[in-house]
From TrEMBL:
InterPro entries: 5peptide_repeat
UniProt-listed Pfam families: Pentapeptide_4 (PF13599)
Organism: Streptomyces diastatochromogenes
Keywords from the UniProt entry: Repeat
Residue segments, region Disordered: 1-22
Protein known as: Pentapeptide repeat protein
Length: 215
C-alpha cells in the first residue's frame, strides 16, 4: 500500500482581489479572495495560481474546466457549485461547507481536503491521485466510474458512498468511520480496510453475494 503524497504549499505574498466579478477564462495569479461573494458568477475556464480563497460564497458559481494550482481554499461555502472537468493540483481545501458540488470528470492530484462537511459530492468519472480526505464528513459522495490511486481517508466519515464502476489502486479506507458503502462493494479490489470494517460490512457483503445468514 503506497501512501498519498501531500502538497507542499508556500504561498508568496498575495495581493487582494478587487475586481468584484469573475471572468470566464480569467487568469488569477498571486491573489487573495477574502470573504468574496462569488455566488452565481461565471468563472468557467479560469486559472487560479498561487491563490488563497478564504470564506468565499460559491453558491451556483460556474467554474467548469477551471484550474486551481498551488492554492489554498479555506472555509468555502455554497450549494450547487459547478466544477465539472476542473483541475486541482497541489491544493489544500480546508473546512468547506458545500452541498451538491459538481466535480464530475475533474482531475485532483496532490490534494488535501481537511475538515468541514460536503454533501452529495459528485466525483463521477473523476481522476484522483495522491488525495487525502482528513477529518471531514462526506455524505453520499459519488465516485462511480472514477479512478482513485493513492487516496487516503483519515479520521473521515464516509456515509453511503457510491463506488459503482470505480477503479481503486492503493486506496486506504481504514481511517473512515463510519464506512458506509451504498454501491460498488465489488469494486473495492485495490483498497485496504480494517478487520472491524470488514465485520461491519459483512451483512452488506452477504447480501451482495446472495448469502443467507441465519441463527
Amino acid at each position: 500500500m503506497k501512501g498519498a503524497r501531500r502538497p507542499e504549499l508556500r504561498l508568496p505574498p498575495l495581493e487582494p482581489w478587487t475586481e468584484g466579478e469573475l471572468a470566464p477564462d480569467g487568469d488569477y495569479d498571486g491573489l487573495e479572495f477574502r470573504e468574496a461573494d462569488l455566488a452565481g458568477q461565471d468563472g468557467v475556464g479560469a486559472r487560479f495560481m498561487d491563490c488563497a480563497l478564504t470564506g468565499c460564497a460559491v453558491d451556483e458559481t460556474a467554474l467548469g474546466r477551471a484550474r486551481f494550482l498551488d492554492s489554498v481554499l479555506t472555509g468555502l461555502r455554497g450549494v450547487g457549485t459547478d466544477l465539472a472537468e476542473s483541475t486541482f493540483r497541489d491544493v489544500e481545501l480546508a473546512d468547506p461547507r458545500l452541498g451538491g458540488t459538481q466535480l464530475h470528470g475533474a482531475v485532483l492530484e496532490r490534494v488535501v481536503i481537511r475538515g468541514g462537511k460536503i454533501d452529495y459530492l459528485n466525483l463521477r468519472q473523476a481522476r484522483l491521485k495522491d488525495v487525502v480526505f482528513e477529518s471531514c464528513v462526506l455524505v453520499e459522495p459519488d465516485f462511480s466510474g472514477a479512478h482513485l490511486e493513492r487516496v487516503e481517508f483519515v479520521d473521515c466519515a464516509l456515509r453511503k458512498a457510491d463506488f459503482g464502476a470505480a477503479t481503486l489502486k492503493d486506496v486506504d479506507l481504514r481511517g473512515a468511520a463510519p464506512l458506509e458503502i451504498a454501491r460498488g462493494l465489488d469494486r473495492l479490489s485495490g483498497a485496504v480496510i480494517s478487520t472491524g470494517q470488514l465485520l461491519d460490512l459483512a451483512p452488506v457483503l452477504a447480501g451482495e453475494l446472495g448469502i443467507r445468514v441465519e441463527g
